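User: Before I run my own analysis I want an independent prediction to cross-check against. Here's the chain; please return only the structure tokens and, at the end, one sentence I can use as a sanity check.
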Amino acid sequence: MFYGIDFAHFWIDDNILHVVYKPNTVIDLKAAESIVKERLRFQNGRSYPILCDLRQLKIVTKPARDYLAQQGSSMALAVALIIETSYSGQISKVFLNTSQPSVPTKEFIEMSKALDFLSFYVE
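Assistant: Structure tokens:
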């Protein structure tokens, strides 16, 4: 099943929830709250490892990063952040270093390595 909101697309494949942000997305606190609310609705009470593709993101504010690191980890077993450019890599490094996610979270350039990491958390 594929589900889209203003900021991202969600789908589940092999018991891994995929979250792919739309191009040039700006995430402030309000957007982060909306994303988490819609993701939880999509998950329908079930926890998943999450593959989060950051490659198209433009900006994530500090309050949004903090919210995503804590409340955004609700119903997440682990999170793999997919990065490509130096900018999205900077976003993920700041997120990992300053926001301290509440579930195992790592960044990856290669999709296959991210999926390998998440496979340890598939129920």
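Sanity check: The chain has a mean pLDDT of 85.
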